[in-house]
Design a protein that fits this description.
The structure is a homotetramer.
Chain A lengths: L1 E5 L3 H12 L3 E5 L3 H5 L7 E2 L3 H4 L4 E4 L4 H9 L4 H4 L6 E3 L5 H13 L4 E3 L2 E2 L2 H5 L4 E5 L2 H6 L1 H7 L2 E6 L2 H31 L4 H9 L6 H12 L9 H17 L5 H15 L10 H8 L8 H7 L5
Parallel strand pairs in A: 1-2, 1-4, 2-3, 4-5, 5-6, 8-9
Antiparallel strand pairs in A: 7-8
Helix pairs in contact in A: 6-10, 10-12, 10-13, 10-15, 11-12, 13-14
Chain lengths: 308, 308, 308, 308
């Protein structure tokens, strides 16, 4: 397909590569132009403007957060203004349900098509074409874009025709991941304080009850007390808990675990772990159990500071 | 009345004084004998043994915790072995519902009378005869001991005939107090970080919505970030949350606030505030909001320590 | 003073009366005109439009929530468009910190003055001129409006010059009130299940440790299991928890009690108590302890319904 | 080996079978004798007394809970009184850390050997010899019993020499499982209320992020809203949360997720789900979101009952 792609962070760059490898024609746009040029040798065409990238069969956006996507869509010469009729906007970013609904309404008003297609997977999975994709939008549009979705990864799920539902699914998935982190954090604090070998503990659990990679990977981070550099930073975890709780409040659904997670991310950030991976809940649980940790200087300063 | 009194901590000593001042004959016993002799000039008779203190119309116990009271009651020459028939045991200590039930059963088996009469109030209130007393036991025994109860304080409530019910009431009261502390702790962390004057905030609240002394007193401790020396130490708060949760579990009653409180006390203790007043939840809330505090050296070490 | 007043719900009507009684000239505006005319016999002047009500020395707004206030302020012929320079807008409503900041910015851009002055107290207190007022705004404006504030109630606190700070204070106060409700709800569920007399329990507590009226009033509602009609409805409680948590998140302050409260309000509403007083957390605690309650038909249907 | 086995519930019976199949000589004892005789055709020898079953190289106990195991061990002609020197007691039951420590002390005093070897797996896994075993005890005793452990399952982990550590591990594992249940329960309540297909949701999640059988199995129960008959009943889940929290409290480790879980199990039981599988937290989350469920009659009565 002839694909426009806006947003070349680590995820967007990975997606660009897997689309190119699958034989698609990809025109990329990024505010910081260097990232676009870096993809030229691999076959990408560099767009000079958003409008330029819209000369395509479909436009994909992969931005960091609500604000970044809103800026790209609603800017004066942004996506909404530039998208030709019949060229659907596929939003791959993890955004709030509220923004997804706002985009759906705005595109509908402009007689444009909008599909939400958030993905699960890290940048390496994006590059390898191994993302899991959650898709919601008008079925004929979704149908038409199948070649694109297949290039993203082998596992797709078409949730329905209301785009925001895909975002609910994505956010609830991140909630489940954060729950894995917090439960491991608490269990491993208990294990360490009980003087059981935490490495053997983790190895036993992940080879019996919990063979899923997420248990192994997050367990490893907690085990090694090493949360920097962040794969997915704590403030992003906080943001997703806020979004999932907002989606749940809109449906009148209490989520006690999500509430605990939100408070834990807030405490983690306030205690100096703003730049750490969201698995840093493991450090928080260790500190709250009185265990020594490799807290960063910022955290140390805060935790043991003078009276202000 | 002719009263035996076992246990001369700060509360027991205060009670002894208010009983003496009310004209009762008081025979005191304490494992560490000095505390008993200290009361001699004020008219107390010093017992050499528990059995000695049982030569009375009624025996009062005011011990620090379950273990201490169990030791006094079930020791070889302890209260259970020494109490003459017709001399009731009145337990004033804050103990678990389970121990109160065990005492009720043991005394019944020994054909002895047992009344639970836990009190609200600090040592100064005990000494001034200004405690609030929650009483449960056979009504004729309770009746007979009225002169004693009236010396403890102006406010009494006879809950019923099942002793453990008085303990449920006492523990639930301590739960309500701890809830006041945690709610103030959270509100004041928000206020401080919002750069509102916390002293003016507290003054406004306690002169409008929350005129109760508990709000003023605990608010003051949090405001001044000064939790040492402890009036009522954090580990005692933890213990009472454990007891109230055990009582609630026995009745199949979920108590989400109590659960939060238990975890907060655990974190406070693990983070080095073992010797602090239970209002130290205010320090915890401040630290978790990234505010600087006057944390004790132990807490500082733990929070910013090396990896173990 | 010559005062314009927008919004004549129960609170606004009460405020109008206490202003009139204090001798002020009050021009009232309400979307539903009947409520305005109802105040005419007491001396109020009825405005035909918002602009009409702005012919005054100061304009007061007392709307139900963020949406209602936004509608009044940002409408085509709304307050922002109508307010003459030098006539301050005093917002008495309980609104979000975010909206208060937005209003401050909008009024500043329009070279208008804005003061946040949320109040504590029920409609009866408003009418009696017995509200507690939390004030924040430029000090000369606040100074100028003193006669108005004094008519609202005897107790005022000037927090500072940043309007949103008054909203933080108001929201944190509602958080403290909700904490009282939940702690009483849990304690009284335990007391009822333990077969202690809950009326005597409440009477004892409020005459000893917790003499504040809020404990008596909310305790009474829980005791009588009577939450209808609502003084302050559960969805408003939920809204305020959302607002206080948003304010706390903006300052990176975790508030575990607020998180529990938010989930409890959500469950209360989802379980059919949407029209009940926010003290209905008492019913929720009772139901979760397996106690029988006077749940409304809606709640009964939900709790024991068919599979959907 | 020559093995005595006390306790023939579903787990004990399964273990007996896998031991027999592995060629061990197994003497079984059960209070209700029928269950022992049922195993005779498969080669088991029926003991008439605990002492009888102790004529072996090693004695295994698999009882339902702390009370049942205490009864068997500390009875007048119980295990402690009957176990010959040199015959180790291997406790396979899920018990509290406190009881495991008490057993270790009692056996040591009696110069007997004690190994804790709790297992993960359901009765079918026990029968198939596919349990995961967590072992702690003196290494030469553990060594000697290897043939027995290998018959239980392919996956063993020797934690150390202090028996209670194996119990900490087992309890923390059950905490992790309960966390999976609650996180799925909340996510699926949100999904159902958002009108996303919950079956497709579960299928997608368990084929991407969460390929572990525990997600599939508990997800299925929640999806079908079918928690009866119980594989592992809610009161057992509550018990294990109590035990893990007690173990954590002994090490001063706060566990916020465990606290939430304890309250959820309490509410589930109080609301009429005492006989349901512990995955019934899914029903609770659905009800608290206002979703209709197939609640049992008991739950329906409670939730919508008359005032008591």
């Amino acid at each position: 397909m002839n694909i426009g792609l806006l947003g070349l962070g680590r995820m967007g760059t990975g997606i660009a590569r897997s689309l190119l490898r699958a034989g698609h024609r990809v025109t990329v746009y990024n505010r910081t132009r260097e990232r676009a040029y870096a993809l030229q040798p691999e076959g990408a065409i560099v767009a000079k403007s958003i409008a330029d990238a819209c000369k395509a069969e479909v436009v994909l956006t992969m931005l960091a957060d609500d604000a970044a996507l809103e800026a790209v869509v609603f800017a004066e010469e942004g996506l909404l203004a530039s998208l030709p009729r019949g060229v659907p906007h596929i939003s791959v970013s993890t955004i709030s349900v509220a923004l997804s609904e706002k985009l759906a309404a705005a595109h509908a008003t402009a007689q444009q098509e909008y599909v939400a297609a958030p993905v699960f997977g890290r940048p390496e999975a994006a590059e390898a074409g191994r993302l899991a994709v959650v898709i919601a939008g008008l079925s004929d549009v979704v149908e038409r874009c199948q070649p694109l979705f297949q290039a993203l990864g082998p596992k797709q799920w078409i949730v329905g025709e209301v785009p925001a539902l895909a975002n609910v699914v994505k956010l609830s998935g991140n909630f489940l991941l954060a729950s894995v982190i917090e439960s491991l954090a608490e269990a491993m604090a208990l294990i360490r304080k009980s003087e059981v070998d935490p490495a053997a503990y983790l190895e036993f659990l992940t080879s019996t009850l919990f063979p899923a990679p997420v248990y192994k990977n997050y367990g490893e981070l907690i085990l090694r007390d090493k949360y920097e550099p962040a794969g997915f930073a704590a403030p992003l975890g906080l943001k997703d808990m806020r979004f999932v709780m907002a989606a749940a409040e809109a449906q009148t659904v209490p989520m006690p675990f999500a509430s605990v997670l939100r408070d834990r991310f807030l405490a983690a950030i306030a205690r100096g772990n703003e730049a750490s991976d969201w698995a840093v809940l493991g450090r928080l649980a260790a500190e709250d159990a009185g265990l020594a940790t490799r807290a960063p200087a910022a955290a140390r300063r805060t935790a043991g500071g003078q009276h202000g």
